[in-house]
Amino acid sequence: MKKYFVVLFIMVLTAMISMANFNLVIGPLSRSLGLLEMQSGGLVTITGICWFFGSFVWGKWAAFNRKLMVSLALLGYTIAIVAFALIVDHVQQELIYPAFLYWVLLGLRAIAGFFFGAIPAIAQDYIIHWTSAGQRTGGMALFGAANGLGFVFGPALGAMFATHSLTTPMYISVGLLLIVVLIVGLWIPGESIGEKLRKEARLSPWDSRIRLYMAIGLLLSTMTIMLQVTIGFYVQDRLLASAQEATRMIGIAAIVGGLVVAAVQVLIGRFPNWRPDRLLVIGLASLGLGFFIFFVAPAYYVLAFAVVGIGIGFTMPGYISSASLAVNEGEQSEVAPFVSAVQGVGSFVGPIVGTALYAVQSGLPYLLCTGVAFGFGIWMVWRTGWKT
Hints:
mainly alpha; Growth Hormone, Chain: A; globular
């Protein structure tokens, strides 16, 4: 059984790396192609929208054969990435009207987002079926660790190979994804062990049992993306750093934050019986404190990234485990697409909200995140009574 979890970890890690290194290079890549900043943002936004819809579609299709569906999704996602990179390389050799090029690239990113939606949704579905209620938090910590490390190694990989060409990180991702397809095909069983037949889907994101946890998941995803899209401007404006210096400073801090996320997941994995609601309270409080540090003391940005990393590390397995354990056993498979979908929603809501607030006042995104995180944390304490 352990090797199956290792495969899931590698699969999610590789997928998140590919998504993160694309987000790193899309800005300079768009400028080199003559696209506008708004068009660059559109390429990211459409990915998140299609990720959202893909989570539900693939979640339902996975009821027939998880292994086949996730393998097809990985292949489709890989093909979309390599097609994007090849077209970009071709355009740099020949003149193509930017308007036409943009719609082609937008379509490819829509396809990539749709296929990508299957990967976290089906990975979580596997974990739900391979773990008991007492093991759920530890299993989801593995998923959280893959997410956290993906957003560390993704930018690092992009920065390392983008000096050769801006599409090189995409080709590296393609190679890694093809290896993952092979590993999944060889090692993952066709269906989960001891699976019961699924009941007809009846679950809704507005179900009173899970809507709070879905709201927390959306909050976490949105806050994370808001930080990613605004921190570069914030460091330049508040610390008077150049673009190059700000990139270096943020890169180091992001690595620290990502490693903290992974360390927290390892800690949770060692103590899988920790209550998910307790994890949520600790995580939300840490998120609020981290964003407050960004707001009042931007010079301590490394510390802020570390504290936010603690928050992400506790909150992610907390809300996923809480949602899956709040419903009946026959409904638990229906939770995974919702959990994946809120990540997709956050990936296109975050840039819009974050940049709009930053345009009003540079510290406003961080102040808002502080208040909302503390607010949800207090709500969780009131709801659970901090039970032991």
